[in-house]
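Appendix B, record 7
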Amino acid sequence: MNDTRNVLTPTVTPLVKKPAQELPEAPFVAGIGTTGEVHAIPHLYAARALGAGARRESGTVCGARAGVHREPSAFDRAALPRWASVCPPCAWTVAVETRTLDRELQELTPTGEHLAALTRLLDDPLIVRHVCEAVIAGYQSEADARSEACMIAALVHATRHAPVLLQPYECITGDCDHPDGQCPADVACATCSLQGRSFDSEPDGTFLEICTITAPCQVLITLVGHLGLPGCGIGAPGAAHPEAARP
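Structure tokens (predicted):
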């Protein structure tokens, strides 16, 4: 007697090649670095990254590695959210190459309540913008690539030392009892200061009392002095709030 059994025949499903993601018609594409910072990827680099497989990693303008998003978008400062952490070397290099320096200067200009608070705390709440404007003006007469690179380096350095408005954590989350506009605040330099990280007991972004450097820091003071900027009114450093956190 024959033993009749059901035999499962494996079927082969043909692989369907997904269409390649279309890159925006822009010279630079936005990429996300390992720390969440937004970088600028040259269009050609991004095209190669999309064709390289699942990793989609690429070199960037500043030399770091970044991933191209599955829905690529242009590196456009006007389109990026204000809260995004944008790589300063990428931002200024793109601004120089695309002739959008005014747009990058606008990103350094505080507005609204932020401006009002900085005005109470600093002699010049627009100190970083004024420094960058002076740097640009000083290099505009130079046409060689070396001068352009020096200009970008100075702009990046000033941007990284921009004053950051600090407030107690409860004020940032809205859990304080202070009247509107009367929360305690101070300013510090994020680059010079030591901040809490995930391995600390303090929340991420908290400026630690052991090393909170009041703004304007010595970097900005030195730039102001070297550039001979009138009206910046560098005052004596004060003590930043020890329990303040970045908004």
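Remarks on this record: The beta strands are 28-32, 38-42, 57-59, 65-68, 163-168, 186-189, 244-245. The chain has two domains: 28-77+85-100, 112-245.
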